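During the reporting period the student researcher (J.K.) took over the structure-prediction task from the postdoctoral fellow and processed the backlog of single-chain submissions. One of the processed entries is reproduced below for the supervisory committee.
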Amino acid sequence: MPIPEFIVELRRAIGHAPLWLAGITAVTIQDRKVLLVKRSDNGAWTAVTGILEPGENPADGAAREVREETGITAELIAKLGDSKYVYVRSWGDRQKVFKIVSFYLLRYKSGRIDDVTPAMRIEVARARWIPLQDAPKLLAYGGEKEMARLALAYLAEHPDLTPPAHRLPPPAGSSRKAPRR
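J.K. obtained the following structure tokens:
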């Protein structure tokens, strides 16, 4: 995955000193399904994730990442929580990163799944909708598993957010036509 230019500039200024990054994870729902992406680097199934741009509102960053990585436009429902952790980047500069990630629950608004630029395939191999109740078993990372459980609980408390199921738009490049709304 390419290192954002603002991080390259930070590294020039601070060298190998520890770097705190603000990230987001978007748990995006449509009916009782959740949007997952298969990472290109390791094949893991995850929620949509990303690093915030300097000065970017986290909820806006979550919606931006969903659009960039999946082709879906989504709107904010609620913030689910935060997670803090440290890791050594396995790509690029291989430096220690301290990360604070805010998790958001978003709802599908429009768009066709996998309608993304070829350049985005560096990050995301594919996207798909799965039943939300299956997400804790399929997601690769513990923080995301926990947030999927929180999303299920939130939706149980707010049944008005999950209308009766209807057909989702087909994947980009599919010959099936999207339903009229």
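The committee noted the following: The chain has one domain: 5-157.
J.K. will present the remaining backlog at the next meeting.
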